[in-house]
Amino acid sequence: MDLEKAPEPAGGEGCLVVAIRLPVRIVVLVLVVPVRMVWDALVVAARFLGDTVFRPVGRAVLWVGRAVFVWPLVGLWRYVLVPLGTALRWLGTVLLVVPAVALYRWVLTPLGHAAVWFHACVLTPLGRGLAVCAAAVRDGLLWLGRRLVVVPSVWLYRWVLTPAGHALLWCGKGLVALGALLVTGLGGVLYWTTRVLVVLPALAVWRWVLVPVGRVLGVVAREAGAALGHAWRIAGYVSFAVGRAFAALVRWTVVEPARWVYRSVLTPVGHVVRDAVLRPVAEAARSAGRVTRHTLRSVGVTVRQVRSDVRRALLGERGTPGTQGVQEVKKSLR
């Protein structure tokens, strides 16, 4: 009999699992590959935008926020509120604290001492006398209450209420026993009725319908989850391959030609322009600057010499007797 049994699938999986797995994985793979490629494209675009747009904009917004909000608030706190608070504290000390201390020391303290004396010498003896009178009245009321209320109440409880209570308790026990008997009978009838009409059919439906259906649905859900993870990984590989192909296409169609143009065309042209045009122009500009500075320096020296000659011709040499009077006149005019 054992030799006639069909071999079970590997891993202890049933035929239902094997029959469901392949179509579920194919369908999930077809559905997931476009989603994964779109997801990877969105991730790349988000990273590019974050590095090129959002981060600089965030830094600019942060700087503007500091310039518009933080620095004015700091200046307001440091140069307006702190001095104003210091002034208000000084005014509060002068206008409130000092008068309050004087009021406490010279008015409230003497009033407090007078109140303590009045309490000790007047209120305390009066209170003690009132306490003695209240104690006497309390003792009288307690004696009257004991004689007029407590003793009659104890007699009524012992000889009237206690026998009536025992009789009522015995009647209540009989009624409770009768009710319990009726409830037990009705409960048994309802139990067996509910068991036959509800519990047994529900148990049969659970055991022979819901459990098999739940197992099938569990297998389908488990295989769908496994297929989704497998398809997501495969879609990642496909998306990575497509991304690499697109990057290679962009590199060989845009980046490498641009690099070749920059290296083979623009760089030699730039060197020729630098060596043939910019450097001679710069040398000519520096030479013109040197000539201009030398000319201006010579003109300045000539002007100083002419001014010195004119001063000597009009006023004479410094320190000579003829010029001392002229210098004294100039000082007096100043």
Automatic annotation (TrEMBL):
Residues spanning the membrane: 26-48, 60-80, 87-108, 114-137, 167-189, 196-214, 234-254
Source organism superkingdom: Bacteria
Record keyword Membrane present: yes
Annotated keywords: Membrane, Transmembrane, Transmembrane helix
UniProt KW Transmembrane helix keyword: yes
Protein name: Integral membrane protein
